[in-house]
User: What shape does this take?
Amino acid sequence: MAVEIRVPQLAESISEATVGRWAVKPGEAVARDQLLVELETDKVTVEVNAPEAGTLAEVLAQEGATVQVGDLLATLTAGAGAAAAKPAAKAEAPKAPQAAAPAPAAAPAATQGGSAAGQPLPAAAKLAAEQGVDVSGVTGTGKDGRVTKGDVLGLLQGGAAAPAAKPAVPAGPRPNAAREERQRMSKLRQVIARRLKEAQNTAAMLTTFNEVDMSALMAARKQYVEAFEKRHGVRLGFMSFFVKACVQALKEFPAVNAEIEGDDIVFKNYYNIGCAVSTPTGLVVPVIRDADQLSFAGIEKAIADFGKRARDGKLGLDELQGGTFSVSNGGVFGSLMSTPIINPPQSAILGMHKIQERPMAINGQVVIRPMMYLALSYDHRIIDGREAVSFLVRVKECIEDPQRLLFEM
Assistant: This one.
């Protein structure tokens, strides 16, 4: 019996995806729920598994193709003998190199990614550890030559992973072509580029700055960090304080938590805070829902969980939607000051930066204090300068006097 493998429902706001790496080749047996193909969307990677045991009959959507929800990806012939799919794949491993022969000329380019070449990405390292696979000799097809999860799956199913297909070089002489490497933009990177440019073109975006003295917060954290971790099983960071401070300020200045929909301004009486997380494939912004109802421990646990699963590519689509305000911490990479770009359809984003000791004039005395620059980018179409500046001042006051957060002042 032929079984159709179609693009699953992705999410309300996502209608298309790019076909990533096929984990199974036509003619190979598969077990029920075995991974067939990965689809790259603008937010996360979606795994499509076999609905039942059988043999992959035909692949209709090749790697790199753009597909819509409901499109036919492949056909599967259901039947006996598929239960031995995984053992069969391992048993045939010695014969598999003949399938990895095409395009040997692409291999040298993939190894010029610097010191990162050959290093597995988190998801690939996890899978390799679970399967007991040595990836030290695998030529990675990811960015900078890093080993991807697809490379490990290819290794498990028989031999070295095939080099990633690269777009053809445009016609015309390129003097330094031999020293260049081309890599197709992932679906995530394409959408990041489009959405950020859209935000610049659509919103009347401005940025206001302030600086915050981190002395009181750092002292409080130092005093309770060990007890907090012992009690709650998670480290006490700075992000939970900033999320709480933003929620407090959003309640006071609701326009910062609103969005434009046509000719209407939609004010949101809930606080879903997006926290930007950098991954090997791009920036994602998982959302802490109803952050106003969470404790410091609840926020820290959510952030830690998001960070780990984002790096492993395990975030769900629903976890990346519905944010009303975002926080980005460029300080973890050493950024002293920046102008973050709004995450549409939101109307504002807070940028945190590096904590750096600086001489400050306080009560007529010059003292050294740990300072952080804060930046609030906002859509001037619905947020006035007074509201934006006042919002940032309120965040500053909450961080410089953390007790305000306890009493919601």
